[in-house]
Amino acid sequence: MTFKVFGYMTLSKGLSFAGDLKLGHYMHVPPIMLFSVQVLATLWGGLVNVGVLYWALDNINGICTSHAVQNFGCPKATAFFTNSVVWGAVGPQRMFERGQIYDAMLFFFLIGAVAPIPFYVLAWRYPNGPWKFINTTLFFFSTASIPPATAIKYSCVLLGLILVMQLGRLSGLFSISTSNDDTQHGGPNTTTLPVLR
Q1: For 79-108, what is the mean pLDDT?
Q2: Residue 140: how many other CB atoms lie within 10 Å
């Protein structure tokens, strides 16, 4: 488990850190400012996480047990420990080779490779359709959060998709203006909030 903490978690957080820098680059955020904010947020988040952890361990009765108050059963920690045991002690070969209990799971590599193709073709064929908003890679990657979560939490994806589509339709109704032509003629500089067209 120590190897997983210092190996996998360091790599995972580093990739997430680099992904945020890449997103900031696409959004034209200055890299020095973005990096300094990431470092500050990491330090602050670490202090807050440790503080909340110690508070929870001292103040929540039966935390991380099946008898915990309000179901504070620590599912993420349990999944982390279980994953460490499975990949360290049992090993993937005893679980995923032909004839074992999870051998059919290997077909998901094929599904993951083929699933984006129809949506790519539909988005290319119908550029104004909803197909351009479907990203199967993100959809499948988000299922990595399922083991410690429940299915009801994952079903919120549908609600979020509907909300984003509705907001996309409504965004055409609003206009944001930060200045007007009166400033060229000596008039006051006004800032207009979102107004209906």
Answers
A1: 78
A2: 14
> What is the rounded CA–CA span in Å between residue 191 and residue 178?
5
pLDDT band at 145 (very low <50, low <70, confident <90, very high): low
Radius of gyration of the chain measured on its C-alpha atoms: 24
Residue with tokens 């420990």: 81
Which H/E stretch holds residue 21? helix 10-26
pTM for this predicted structure: 0.47
- Contact between 63 and 56 (Cβ < 8 Å): yes
What distance lies between CA 103 and its chain's CA centroid?
28
Tell me which long-range contacts 133-142 makes (C-beta under 8 A, separation of at least 24): 133/164, 133/165, 136/112, 137/112, 140/112, 140/115
Task: List residues bridging with 196 in a β-sheet.
Answer: 174
pLDDT of residue 120: 92
In angstroms, the Cα distances linking 43 to 38, 53, 88, 141 are 9, 15, 31, 27
